[in-house]
Amino acid sequence: MTPTPSDWIQLNGPGAASLGDVGGALAASDALGNKATFFSGFGNPILPGVDKGTRHIISQAATPSALYAFLAQPPAAGSFTFDILLSQDGGNTWNSILNNPISMTASGPTTSNDFAPTSGFAITNLLRLDILSTGVGPGFATGFQCVLALASITPPSFDRATMAFGLISSPPLGRDFGGYYLVVRNNQPRAIYVQVKQPPLANVTLDIQVLRPGVSTWTSIFPAGGQPVIEPTISGTLASQTFAPGLLFEPGDLLRPYILSGPSGSGTGTGYSVVLEMETLQ
What we know:
Jelly Rolls, 19 strands
């Protein structure tokens, strides 16, 4: 097997290193950042007033802290308006957690902490996304996602970004996959793990990139030449703790996976899963 970049090690498979060699932040993440994430309009038009069916189940008592929203394609006219609803009776009745629905006419990220008075969310309470308007005509706005940061009794020590792409077919080179990870806390990256279901036919160089609010250019979270190289003989999970010097994430930052180089089409392999562990900065 051709050596991977020196900052990346293989965690399982023949001759693999142990989790302890990377630091294993997950083993100590007993206070993982609590949040609810909602997506809409990735592949299908966004229709106002249609229940998407997806619920976030409250698993620990919490109160709403801040809401962040991003819209890949704003409507041609009018505004994209949404609400977050809470059910405390198993989905029979729903009430807004916001004092006012949020309207967007630009991509964002848009931030709000204008929450309706509440005693907090209890275990088994449900949250869901409610799209009120997509602008002029249905389906003009696409690629919507929002993250509701929740404050639990225990302050979060860690946060985690999970990204999966190419699960059904080989992902293309140099293509934006959408469905970004939206940062909602001040974080510092600690460790990253990359697993591949079907290795590529030739070396593929992956990247994780960040886009800051008000900036138009995506930049790598790794130092120059430090991106993971997925080889045809890869077996197991690659891991690293090396990131660009001084790298910090702030609320509103977007993270995305990207393929920098490799064989096109089916040669890029399939089933890429990435987990980025981040230490929350209080």
